[in-house]
Amino acid sequence: MDLETFYESNEARRESAEFEYGDDWTDAVGNHYELSWVEATGELYLMIEPDATITEDAFGDWYPSGPLSELTVVVIGQVDNHDHLESLLAGWDSAIEKTNSLTWLHQRFPVEKK
Fold it and tell me: For strand 25-26 and strand 43-48, is the pairing parallel, antiparallel, or unpaired?
């Protein structure tokens, strides 16, 4: 789903604190992803924007330059406790540097086929 739909479908997401776990996760073909966790819902999600240009505002926040409809969000897990999430993601800052780093995430948060 796109980013705006993600937030519109549950307003708790929009108002919640979010924790970011890197914006340079890669897949097998070299696409880049950002990993974030929404405190209110416990959702761990990946976001990708094709050919994104990211800009920084005066407050140090980062924003995509393109339309939000081009940002794709995939929820990869549900973790209700921040401390538990931290334990599941221990070592992520080293794992993100490897080629196809999404495999590391998939080992911790396998996506069920529907």
Answer: unpaired
Residue 47 pLDDT more than 80? yes
What is the pLDDT, as a whole number, of residue 67?
Answer: 47
Q: How far apart are the first and last CA of the chain?
A: 16
16, 32 contact by CB (below 8 A): no
Q: CA torsion sign, 45 to 80 to 18 to 14?
A: positive
Count of CB atoms situated within 10 Å of the CB of 72 = 15
Burial of 28 (0-12, 13-18, 19+ CB in 10 A): exposed
Secondary structure class of 102 (helix, strand, coil): helix
pTM of the model: 0.80
**In the chain, what are the domain boundaries?**
3-108
Bridge-partner residues for 25, per DSSP? 33
Give the pLDDT confidence of 96-111 residue by residue, as tens digits.
999 999 999 999 988 6
